[in-house]
Amino acid sequence: MYNKNKVRLKLIILPGPSSQILGVKVANLIKGAEIAEISFKKFPDGEEYIRIKNDVENDDVLVIQTTFPDQNKCLMQLFFILDALKDLKPKSISIVLPYLAYSRQDKRFKKGEALSVKVISTIIKTICGKLLKKVITFDIHSIKILDFFNGTAKNISAMELFGKYFKDKKITNVFCLAPDKSATPRAKKIAKILECDFSYLEKERDLTTGEIETSVKNLDVKNMNVIIADDIISTGGTMVNAIEILKKQGAKDIYVCSTHTLLIKDSKFRMYRAGAKDIIGTDTTINECSKISVAPLIAREFK
After folding, report:
1. Any catalytic annotation for residue 86?
2. What's the pLDDT at 204?
3. What is the pLDDT of residue 106?
């Protein structure tokens, strides 16, 4: 980051408790960036304690805090960090939310429902005030959520990372598939890098039970290696349905990729049982499927 005279400004990276490793990766990619140390613990009654140990007065500070697992805990930690940071008088505050919890509750599906993600954005804006410079998210479930941040938010797609990942694997005879129509732009981005065809499936979700029904669609995938791309894998129901449809239509190897692999309960087992060859995610959430880092994309925004 530079001022108008192209003089390098001091950038302090503050990794929250849920993104310590990712924060270090980002700092290593930005020349001159420094890492602030944060002290955190949980009291015997379950309450959170946060303390920022560095002097960040008049510095640009980048907070990196994903909000999974334990969404409520991670969000409270984020709010405490921002409040403590504001009192230390930084020049500006930027926030990277690798995975933004509650992003699927972007509208009121039924009368009386809380607009959860709007509440989160309101708290962030209220704490930071005019110090808030930028908010970065990755493959957010609904792009209109960015409007809640009043022009400070930007969504970054991790699909280029998946495209490069599969290109490096030298997988041939490839077809890209979006498990529903809204995910089509993601499959399209990967397909562009791999220079292959793409398509999508239609699905409907029961708003009461949460059950997903995917419509069968004839796809020209016989003996093809198929990459299914989406933003979030939670219970895996959408992916399992897509895998089963592809298998019935003669697909060869099926690769599942998602920016945010939440992998609730036995979702990973169910996808492998349905016929997935591999499951690939990023480090917006940390688990055994987090094979790609979004650190280069974050660093690119702040160099």
Report:
1. no
2. 74
3. 81
